[in-house]
Each structure stands twice: as structure tokens, then as C-alpha cells.
Amino acid sequence: MSDTDPVTLVPCEPGALTPAELRTLFLFEKLTDEQLQWISDHGCTMHMPAGGVVIQEGDPADQFFVLLSGTIALSRKVGQDDVQTSRTEQRGVYMGATNAYLRDDGVPRRYMASMRALDDSDFFVMSAEDFGHIMREWFPMAVHLLEGLTLGMRSSQAAISERQRLTALGALSAGLMHELNNPAAAASRATASLRQRVAGMRHKLGMLAAGKVPTDRLVALVELQEDVIERAAKAPALTAMQVADREDELGDWMDERNVTGAWDLAAVFAQGGLDIECLSDMEARVGSPELLDQAIHWIGYALETEQLMTDIEDATSRVSSLVASAKQYSQMDRAAHQWIDVHTGLDSTLVMLTHKIGTGVKVVKDYDRTLPQIPAHPAELNQVWTNLIDNAVQAMNGAGTLTIKTYREDDHVIVAVGDTGPGVPDELKKRVFEPFFTTKPVGEGTGLGLDISYRIVVNGHGGDIKLESKPGDTKFKVRLPLNEPASA
Fold this sequence. Notes:
There is one protein chain. By secondary structure, the chain is an alpha+beta fold. The chain folds into 3 domains: 19-138, Jelly Rolls (Sandwich), CATH 2.60.120; 176-321, no CATH class; 337-481, Heat Shock Protein 90 (2-Layer Sandwich). The protein is 50% helix and 18% strand. It has a 5-stranded mixed β-sheet with strand order 10-12-13-15-14. α5 packs antiparallel against α8, α5 packs parallel to α9 and α10 packs across α12 (378-395). The model is unreliable at 1-10 and 441-447 (pLDDT under 50).
């Protein structure tokens, strides 16, 4: 019988697979005839119709399964959602009580995931007790090695993963606090300055009233204030050189008319985009040279308050934008699985990592905005983008170009994260996705970031992730399917 020959099974029939049939499964192919006969005598076969649940996460792990035919999917419970972790139709894969050979530590062993048949599927089944027995009796040395490896990696990975999560959370929190502090401090400074300017306006208004200004002139002054503010709002943006030249012109004009604090006022009017024509219009409408000084100061205060309120609005909008990005990044109040635009997650990740990226790295976003939405777990993909962008920034040592490109390739969306760092040597390219392997100096990397990213993309989304690297041009390309797997 070949690997591809179908096996006719009767559900739960002990001994339904002969030793010869068992040998066609890669797990048993090197066993002796006597060992295969023992397994045949102690095993049974099971048929599960499409859609049936073979094992349920959290139930006692009392059976060991080997897939004979069909397609199965494993999933884990995350909150209220079932998150698919892997999907396969490979004949001979095994699942269930795979750690039954481990020594009893008093902790009940339970299935770590649920398994569902996506189409009609057949299994060879052994009890956990029988599977543990043959492992311990037939392969004692291997069991000792596996126990040490499993328990050692479990404790090491738990400790390192916890530390990595705390480190990543600390870095993201510090970056977010830094980004929030800038607009918050700007809003605070603008508010303090605004209070001073409003007080100055009240004082200047009192002086104007005490000067017994004719009613028509006071009305004209109020109208002039509104006209100037409207003109400033519509003024074209000026370069730094143009603003400096405008200040000189306005300062000279005010000096000629003995306006007090002319050069301080000139900076305010120039920043507002106003010119000599505006001042001349103001002079004509005020009509009285003795009122011009007070009028210009009053208009200057009004103009500055508008600028300060714009600064406060910009700062508070920036805070709101950062909070929205943080919420988008963490996927708060959102379903674990949904149809998403990949650019939303990429943008929110860039915002969260702004402080870490720094000013020495130029960020180039080459997005294809016409890409359709894809089915995904956005919080998990954000973790992938974080790992890839963080690695790229570290590779460039704070100076270079970070390029994020999106495009369509057949029935997949491609997200490429590139950097201009030194690259990854050819002999290490095949190892970058191995757990605990890192090219970073000791203490700077855990070797889990790319391993986690690989499992999220490949196992969790049915995609692929590849590395292309040469000095000055390194790219990680993430391929994500446009549609759900047909059989899911």
C-alpha cells in the first residue's frame, strides 16, 4: 500500500489498520513488525464527518490521533473568539495527547486546542496511556531527551516571552508617553500664553474706551479686527525666508509711524501672513494717528490669540490621533477576526513606534490604496508589523531608510518591510525564523520575534513570509491571502 492509497475504515474498530498499513505512516515507518502489531492491537480507527469536532480545547487529553485522510483545523479560544492556529491535510500528522510520555507532575493534561474536521476525515487513534507506554518502554533515551527539551524550552520560553512582552510594552508605553507629552506640553504653553494675550486685549480695550474714541471709529476698529483675522486665515503659507523678509518690511513701516514694540508686533503680523497693504488699510480705517498705535496692538493681540487657539487645536487633535492610533494598534473593543485594510494597522504601528524610529530614519510609505480588505486577526498582524519594523530600525542603527510597500500579487496581498542596513549573511538567512536564534548582540534580542511572526502569518493566516537580503537592501515580504481558505 502506498502513502496515497485510501484506507477503508470502520469507525472505532480495533485493529482496523494492519501493521503493513501502519508502516505507510511516517510516524511508524521505522518500527519493527512486532511493534507495529502491538500498535495495531491497541489502536482503533475513527471517522469524522465534515464539520465535526474531534477534540475540544480544555477536555482531558486522553487520546492520540493520527490523520489518515481529510482536512482538519486546530483552533484556540481567545476571549469570545475561536482563532484558527493551523490547518492541514497532510496524511500522517498527529495531534492530541502528544505529551503523554512526559512524567506525571500532578497537573491534569488537557487538550491545548480544538480540532475540527473541515471535510470527511479518518483517524488512527490510540489512548494516551498506550501511547505514553510505548514511548517510555521502546524509546527510554529519547523520552529523557524529549522531557528535558520540552520542559526546559517550556520554562525558558515562558520566562523569555514574559520578559519580551514586558520589554515591548515598556518601549511602546515610553514612546507613546513621549509622543503624548509633546502636544500636551505645547497645548499647556499655548494656554498660558493665551491667558496673557486675552488679559492684554482687555487692558487695551480699556485704554481705547478711556480715550473717548468716537463710536464710529470704535465700530470701524471692531470690523477691522474681524477683517484682519479673516485675511490671516486665508493668507498663503510662507517659507521661513519669506517670513523673515516680511518682518523687516512690517517693522520698518511701524517704526516710521512710531508704533511701540514695532519689531515684536511685526513678527506676529508676519507669522499671520499679513503685509504692508493690510497695515495701510488699517491706518486708513482708523483715521487718527494717535489711535494707530493702540489699534495695531489690539489687532496684534487678537491675531495672536487666533494663532494660539490654532496651536491648541492642533495639539489636542494630535493627542486624540495618538489615542486613536493606540486603540487601533491594540484592537480594543474589536473582534479578533475581521476583514481589514492592512494599511490601517501599518499606520497605527508606525505611530506607536515613532519615538523608537527616531529622526535619523526616513520612512517611505509606498502603499497601493486600491488593495481590497483581507480576512485577518489585526491585533496579531500588528505584532508582526511591530517585529519587522523594530528589526529594520535596529539593523540600520538609527540612520537609513525604512520602506513599507504594499501591492497585490495574484490572489495575495504583499506587505514588504525594507531597510538599508548591512543585510543578513547568506548562511544565516535560513535560520532567522528559528526560535531563539538572533543576530543581535547578547542581551538585545530573544530570537522569538521572527518565530512568532512566522507562526502568525503562516499558521494563523495561511500566508507566507520570506527574507530577501543584500547589503543596503533587506526586505521581509509577508504574503496574505485575499480570501478565506475555500474549505474553512
